[in-house]
Specification:
This protein has about 200 residues and is of the alpha+beta class. Helices cover about 35% and strands about 20% of the residues. The longest helix is centred in the first third of the chain and has 22 residues. The chain is globular and about 45 Å long.
Length: about 200
Amino acid sequence: MKLLLGLVSFTAVAAGTLVGCAATLAQPFDTLKKDAAPMTVFRLQNFEPPAQAAAAPGATVGGFALPPQIQQWITAGAQMLPPGLLPPGLIPGTAAAPAAQAQVARFHEFRILGNVNVADPSIHAEMMDILGKESNFDMPRESCMYAEFGVAVAQRGQPPADVLVSLSCNQVRTFGFVWPHGQKTGLKPDTTKRIIEVMKRTFGG
């Protein structure tokens, strides 16, 4: 009887430990989630044409060559984003992409199209869950970085934890902290879908 009770007790403790481990995010995201650290999300212009191309009379998306990764994304994946969240100038018939300029607000070299200080705790928690679990990432398939979104999370006594998110290149790039998942910066298909849902909830659409 004592042996049986001991086994039951051990099993319960082990199960609780496993559940606790499964619920823990990689640092710094576990701490950032628990602290509800202030988070800002950015919409970014993923590609800016050379100034001379954008300045040409009647210039459109066809007036310059888009990077092949963005061309492929437009064909295969950009339709997952509402029109209001697509960077301008990528779809034929829409407004041209703004020319590269020095005097505009930028997030790690990418022009800021809009930003939101996230107040919804469920959005904050979902983004931390996405970034904090290695299972959401894979080895990158591309080396490019044309970021459509950015995430900045305040850290106590340290620079903010900044993340560029490129749906067209299927990967993230980080600043201000050590990425906990090693070389796994590539977005899995389900991860991309979750990020898109977060951005739709954040910016509307």
